[in-house]
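As a warm-up, study this chain.
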Amino acid sequence: MIQTIVKYADHTERVAKEARKAVYRNVGHAAASIRKEAIESIESGDGPSAPGTPPHTHTRKVSKSGKVSKGQLPRAIVYDNDKESDTAVIGPRESVVGTSGEAHEFGGDYKGQDFPERPFMGPALDKNIDRFASSFAGSIGS
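Now compare it with the structure written out below.
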C-alpha cells in the first residue's frame, strides 16, 4: 500500500498584501518622479515663456550661499498617493497659486487674460511613463 500526505498552505492573502504594498510604493515613486520633472521644467525668466513650453517663474531671492529660490508655481507642485485606491494626485496647490496652473497647462482665461498652453505636468508624465512598468517588475516581496 502507498500512502501520500499532502500539506497545503494558502498564501493568497499574504501575496495580495505584498502586491498592495508594492503598488502603493511604486505609485508614490512615480508621482514623485513626475513632480520632480515638472518642477525642473519650469525655468526662471523675465516675461512669459513661449507658447507650448513650460511657464517661466520669477526668481524670489538668492540666499547667502548663492542658491536661487524659484517662484510660487514650482513650490506649489505637490503629490499625494492613496493606499485605498492605488492612485496619486500630482499638481500645483490651488491654495498657493489659484487656478493659474490650469491656465498654463491647458490654456484659457485667468484673471481676465487669455493664456496660451504652456504645459508642464503633461510633458512630465510623458517623460516618466516608460519607466513605470519596469518599476513594478520584481517589486513584490522585495
